[in-house]
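User: I'm new to structure prediction. If I give you an amino acid sequence, what do you actually give back? Let's try with this one:
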Amino acid sequence: MKDGPEITVISVCVGEEHWTGYLELYYQKEVADLARLNHENTRKLLGYCIDSSLFTRMLVFEYVSNGTLYEHLHCVAKSLRYLHTEIEPPFTISELNSSAVYLTEDFSPSVYFSDTIV
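Assistant: Good question. You get back a string of structure tokens that encode the predicted 3D arrangement of the chain. For your 118 residues, that looks like this:
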């Protein structure tokens, strides 16, 4: 936004011809529900758009700069695919949990494996 905060805009991807009264009620309920949220781990709803002339439905949120959890986990999944299918012999992991995934300065995940030998 000009001279304002960075924002994220989510646009509804349903054509006007497929937009039903039920979907409109659902959208309005979603806006009302999102407006109630006030927690440090939820994005704040800054506004919404309902324009019938161009059929637009959008939600406007605070911008979050480090991407999505999916983007970060996808990198972990690629490393697991490499370990399981792209090296010979495959590297097997006896136990993998979130404590084994470390984040670099730019929040890129890096998997660290250590098995305790008893």
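You can read the tokens as a compact description of the fold. Here is one thing that stands out. The radius of gyration is 21 Å.
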